[in-house]
Design a protein that fits this description.
The protein has 137 residues and is an alpha+beta fold. It contains three helices and six strands, in the order E-E-H-H-H-E-E-E-E.
Length: 137
């Protein structure tokens, strides 16, 4: 049963109470509603993964940003993404991760790279954070 928080005055409930309320709204069993929710997330992740495998322009933009001479002194300048061989993403409540492996033409060479990024949504005590990494394979 939702309670009124004494500090904020907001209505609050436990996770179990939330799922039970959602199940009641939908006229389903609580486990069924939770399973539907997680299946929807898995389907969204797979759709995003498939889109990432085809997004050569987006991959090139991420690599150009990562290898920006203002932040990176490697001297590498990505010119074209020739192929994306693998992609992955994972959504979480507080953190999301994505990565791809691609064959990339730099100014003077073709190399395979693995690019990854992690987004942290933050909390009451910590601000949001973002980190990207690229490894030449």
């Amino acid at each position: 049963m939702p309670k009124i928080d004494s500090i904020t005055g907001c209505s609050v409930m436990t996770i179990t109470e939330f799922w039970a309320a959602e199940a009641q709204k939908e006229g389903k069993d609580m486990i069924e509603v939770m399973e539907d929710f997680h299946n929807d997330i898995a389907a969204d992740e797979e759709n995003t993964r498939q889109a990432m495998l085809k997004d050569f322009t987006g991959a090139l933009e991420k690599l150009k940003e990562y290898y920006n001479p203002e932040y990176d002194d490697s001297g590498l300048v990505p010119v074209e993404v020739l192929e994306i061989t693998d992609a992955d993403c994972c959504y979480g409540y507080s953190k999301s991760k994505s990565s791809f492996v691609a064959k990339v033409r730099f100014e003077d060479q073709v190399r395979s790279v693995q690019y990854s990024e992690v987004s942290y949504n933050g909390s009451f005590y910590e601000p949001p954070d973002f980190d990207a990494n690229c490894v030449i394979l």
